[in-house]
Amino acid sequence: MNTTIGTTQLPRTPSPEYDLIAAIAADRFDVPIALVNIDDGEDVWVKAKIGLDLCSAPKDIAFCGHVLETAQPLIVEDLAADLRYHDHPLVLGDLHARFYAGVPLRNRHGVVFGTLCIVDRRPRTFGDRDLRGLMLLAEQVVERVELSELRHRERATTVIDQTTTDAFVTCDRHGRVTHWNAAAEALLGWPRDEALGRPITFIIPPAMRSAHSAGFDRLVASDSAQPMRVVEIPALRRDGTEVHVELTLGVHREGDDVTIVSILRDATARRLLEAEREASRMLTDAIVENMPAAIYAKDLTTDRYVFVNRAFEQLSGRGRQDIIGRSWGDVFPQADMEAYRRSTNAAMATSGPILLERTMTRPDGTVRQIEATKIRSVGPDGRMILLGFAQDVTEEREANQRLSYLAHHDPLTGLLNRTRFGEIVDECIAAGGTPAIICLDLDRFKIVNDLYGHAAGDEVLVEAAQRIVTASQSPVARLGGDEFAVLVADSGSAGRIARRTVDTLARPFGIRGHGVGIGASAGVAIHQASHGGDSDLVLRNADLALYRAKAEGRNQWCFFEPAMDHAARERRQVESDLRTALDRGEIHVEYQPLADAVTGTVISFEALARWDHPRLGRIPPSLFIPIAEESGIMPDLGRFVLEAAAAEAASWSPELKVAVNLSPAQMDEDDLVAQVGRILAKAALAPRRLEIEITEGMLIKDTARGIRLLTEFRALGVSVSMDDFGTGYSSLTYFRTFPFDKVKIDQSFIRDMDENPQSLAIVQAVIGLGRGLGMPVVAEGVETRDQLERLRAEGCDVVQGYHIGRPAVIGSFKNGVILDAVVGAAEA
Ligand code: C2E
Ligand code: CA
Ligand code: CA
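Above: the input record for the complex with calcium ion. Below: its predicted structure, written as tokens.
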């Protein structure tokens, strides 16, 4: 066990050499007791003793405590006579001490660390010579202590020298190696024996030798004893390779002797580590710099940017030289300041990252939408920093907005689409409202589209959308095609709004400089809370009401009634029944005569389809023909009628013709004309006895194709009549492009010819047109004798109608009915 005493460190075991000194002291001064005491804090520790078996004693009891305290010798020639000590335990006790002389042990730094004392059992005189002698002995003790200390240190140094991984090399003033430890052998490859005595230059690379000797000389000449700072230099190894070492130089002088001490440490590992760190730092820098996310760091104490990467420069539209060292306010516009403050404060308030979205204005004024993460952090120097990662999400957000807009709107008109409209209506219902829906359908949109092309059609839709929005001041959707819907939150005003909307759409639309009347019909349905149901039900009801309004003619609107629902269901039923009606033989053909207006002679019969539904009874063609056209049954139905009519007419007297209606829905049949030719051939009916009745619909969609078909029919020998003239567009151009064999004035004009001068005017105009073109004119729907006479007077060529004969099975005519009608006409 070791104990530290002042600067002195020595083993606590008693040591014989000290005992020797104690013995010399006892002998020299002829005393029974001599001690070497070492200050041990509270106690004095008896290092060497003669005549006293004591290891340690409390400082205040031992006389030596006084010497240690005062650091001065203490001589008490007669302790019993000394007032300070006469009752001291050592005086009164077994020791019977009567004399004491003690001197301090003082090391070379002047520190007192113990005493040398002699004690006698009788009083004595102790002169100056005695005191000097005792002090000389004390110096001996000190020297011994220091010597043992030195030896101890030397042993420790040797251990260090042998075990350290640092190379220790010393040189004398001439640069000759005087010390070379094991680490030096390992580092430089030279064994100690070969290194000792050599000039140190053998480990200096040749290129550095001259610089080295100059430096060496300076070092020797300088009187500095401070170790030099560490330098890194290459050293030459025995095998000729160089090794980088960290060199620490020190100079030790003792008298004229100079020792240059060098400590060399292999720097390879450190250099490698540094290179690795540098590489890793460069990699990090490159990553951060080239990261697509914008990164920045701000010193929170100064509120200034300390770092931004390239993406941040691009995002902000500013170079880093304009950002680093500045605060946010120095760089970015004041307008964005508030949003910036808010997000920064939020980031400061929490330890976790905060996510935010805001705008960033570039110097050119463009505004980018950014998504940023901010986090409070600690920089490498311990300062608080704010780290931010930002991403430009402008395009993404815009695309999302566009997508969500597209998902909810009709791209052409910008109105809501069906899906979104339904959602809004449902929201309204869910909130306890009783909304009304107005369904609108443009009356003659299809014709515009067919006649003027899709671009014009689109213009009409856009214009119609604007008009509906203005008139309704409510959410408006385009449901598809030319159908629109309006949500009226306050159902009480639904009727008024429907009227207003229908009226606004009744005004002509400007198309290529023409004012074209298109018009619209509307159906209104109100959500019935008591009936439940959602937007779908209200929409369906409004649609049914629309259907009814359409049936009532143009520019009409009507409210939904439960009966409509019933009718609609019926219609769906009819549609599915119609598919099988032909096969089941539920359809047959009736014939209606056309007679010469002047002579009353029947010249032909028009074949008209009849459907006797097993449950619903007779279904009028005005109902089932459109259904057949829409559901793709028309080609089959048309062929059936033609076959029946051709077969029938073949049995008639040869001057009688048969007229068959041709639906536009039959046009798409590939070999329509050839098919008709085959049917005629099969029935053995001469083509000149067949009249095809077509309507404008046949020519509107694809005029060129329509004309081509008619021309082919003509080439086959079949004649072609223009049916229902006066309704629709009734363009006179048709007559220029194709020489019709007949034109049939629509029965609506004949019906109110008497009361309505316009109708009469049209009838007269068509008759005039026919005369001009050398084309017979047929008046349809002649129900009275008056009408017949009027038409005859106007110069109409042919008449058809109940007054002449109702459509009926052909058998009824063979019974002389025709004759009656003819006679009736002739009489008139
Ligand atoms: P449409 O071609 O104009 O046929 C004339 C219609 O007028 C027939 O109605 C006929 O019954 C009716 N009618 C004739 N005289 C009078 C009259 O004096 N007063 C009144 N109020 N009506 C009269 P229907 O048979 O109901 O046919 C309606 C429409 O159905 C026809 O109009 C025609 O467009 C279409 N249609 C009928 N059968 C066929 C067919 O086999 N093929 C095609 N494509 N269409 C057909
Ligand atoms: Ca007809
Ligand atoms: Ca007709």
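Notes for the reader.
The longest strand covers residues 242-254.
The chain has a mean pLDDT of 88.
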